[in-house]
Amino acid sequence: MVGSKVKDSTDGARRDVLVAPPVEVAAAHATDDDFDALESVISVRGLDFFYGKEQALFDNDVDIKRNRVTAIIGPSGCGKSTHIRTYNRIYELYRDHRATGEIVFDGKNILVPGTDVLDLRRRMGMIFQKPSPFPMSVFDNVAYGLRQHYKLSRSELADRVEDALRRSALWDEVKHKLGEPGIALSGGQQQRLCIARCIATEPDVVLMDEPASAIDPVATAKIEELMESLKKNYTIVIVTHNMQQAARVSDYTAFFYEGRIVEFGPTTQIFSNPREKQTEDYITGRFS
Amino acid sequence: MSASPTGSALRTPRPGGDDHGVHGLPPLSAVPARSHARRKAADLAIKIVSWVAASLGIAVMALIVWEVVRRGVGAIDWGFFTELPPAVGEEGGGLGNAILGTLVITAAASLIALPTGFLGGVWLAEFGRNGRIATTVRMVANVNMGIPSIVVGLFVFAVLVKPFAHYSGFAGSVALAFIMLPVMARTTEDMLNLVPNELRESALAMGVPRWRVTLGVVVRAARSGLITGAVLATVRVAGETAPLLFTALSSPYWLEGLFGPEGFFGGPVANLTKTVYDFSGTPYPRMQELAWGGALLIIVAVLGLNVLMRLIFQRGKEW
Amino acid sequence: MSTVELDMQRQTGPRRGAAEAAPRRGHRFGDPVFRVLTLVCGLLVTIAMFTLAGVLIYDSWPAIRELGFSFLTTVSWSPSSGSYGALSALAGTALTTIVAMVIAVPLAFVIALLLTELVPPSVARVIGTAVEMLAAIPSIIFGMWGLYVLVPFMQGTVVPAVTGSWLGDLPLIRPGATFQGGGFSILTAGLVLAVMVLPFITAFTRDVLLMVPRVTKEAGYGMGSTTWEVLRRISLRYALSGVVGAAFIGLGRALGETMAVAYLVGGEFLNVPSSLFDPGTTVASLIALQFGEAMTELDISALIAMGLVLFAITMVFQVLAQMWLKRAQRTAGGRA
Question: Is residue B21 part of a domain?
Answer without folding.
Answer: no
